[in-house]
Design goal:
Blueprint lengths: L5 H16 L7 H6 L5 H11 L4 H17 L6 H7 L5 H9 L10 H10 L3 H19 L5 H16 L5 H11 L5 H11 L4 H14 L5 H7 L5 H14 L5 H6 L6 H14 L2 H9 L6 H14 L11
């Protein structure tokens, strides 16, 4: 559906608001689309109806909005998500924070930072931190004002270094800030990796991938041979994010792993790296008896761009 002209849009919004007022949260995709890009008056009208719903209904409606936004990038529910950051229900606040991941307006930065530090719910704080990771990535590409960059980077660093914070939130903060190319980031990753805690260690591995720095490949290779499935998976995923062909031999060794979850992660990583050696490795497991593995191989071939070229040698 294309964006309607102004009169049509007004009619579509009026119809969507009428259905909401009648208590229906089972709106059509067209109704949901009509709620995109609301102005302040439209947002106030939406909130008046939204807040009369129960928490489960509010969550379901916001979930519809954010899901449709993922499939239709031109839709924008940022103003609704910003308002929902103060919802009384933690699940709604967390979903609202996630819904702002693609929002490039600076007005979302301060509320997300506040949520990441002050919210009473660990899950909400984690979700806000993850969304701020997308903001940090824009900062690294010089797409933020200096003051905003400082606020985001310093905020995430403070959360990661705060020993009183829940470890899962600290790990998420490290992963989010890892895109920043500064010496202290590498030091903090080392601190987490050497910590005697699985959550912090996994956070460090995820952060290594976010750096996109081949410096971490030897460390990741070491983690690919440990006994813990989660660590092998995290190491494989990180290697795929870094996309250095030097990681392929170690990933190839993991194609003998007994864990289906590890195998899928390894196959996806190999597809992200690509190249002739990657194609040959994928061919080794293309007839695996497990259907999920064969499906992962097909997806990896498509991701690598050689779905129709089994050895990846085409021009």
């Amino acid at each position: 559906m294309t964006n309607p002209t102004s009169p049509d849009r007004e009619k579509a919004q009026a119809r969507a608001f009428e259905r909401l007022t009648d208590g229906s949260v089972e709106l059509s995709d067209d109704d949901i689309a009509a709620l995109s890009d609301l102005d302040r008056d439209g947002c106030d009208r939406f909130n008046g109806t939204f807040l009369r719903l129960g928490p489960e209904e509010r969550f379901a409606l916001l979930e519809r909005l954010t899901q449709l936004q993922e499939t239709r990038p031109l839709l924008d529910y940022s103003i609704i998500c910003l308002s929902a950051l103060t919802d009384e229900d933690a699940a709604v606040r967390a979903l609202a924070a996630a819904g702002l991941a693609d929002n490039e307006e600076r007005e979302s930065i301060a509320p997300l930072l506040t949520l990441a530090v002050d919210d009473e719910d660990e899950g909400v704080r984690s979700e806000a931190v993850v969304t701020l990771g997308a903001v940090a990535l824009r900062a690294e590409f010089d797409q933020l004002r200096d003051a905003d960059r400082t606020a985001v980077v310093d905020g995430l660093r403070a959360i990661a270094e705060n020993s009183a914070e829940e470890r899962v939130v600290r790990a998420a903060a490290l992963t989010s800030v890892a895109v920043i190319d500064e010496p202290w980031v590498r030091e903090l990753i080392f601190d987490f990796f050497e910590a005697d805690n699985d959550i912090l260690r996994l956070g460090a591995l995820q952060a290594m991938g976010r750096t996109a720095d081949s410096y971490w490949i030897p460390t990741l290779e070491n983690s690919m041979v440990v006994m813990d499935d989660d660590e092998r998976i995290a190491a494989a995923v990180a290697a795929g994010e870094i996309a250095d062909e030097n990681a392929l031999p170690a990933l190839g060794e993991l194609l003998e792993d007994e864990s289906i979850d590890v195998l899928v992660a390894v196959i996806e990583a190999i597809g992200e790296i690509g190249g002739p050696e990657a194609a040959e490795q994928l061919e080794r497991v293309s007839t695996h008896p497990e259907g999920s593995i064969r499906a992962a191989v097909q997806d990896a071939r498509e991701a690598a761009g050689f779905a129709d070229d089994a050895l990846g040698l085409g021009a």
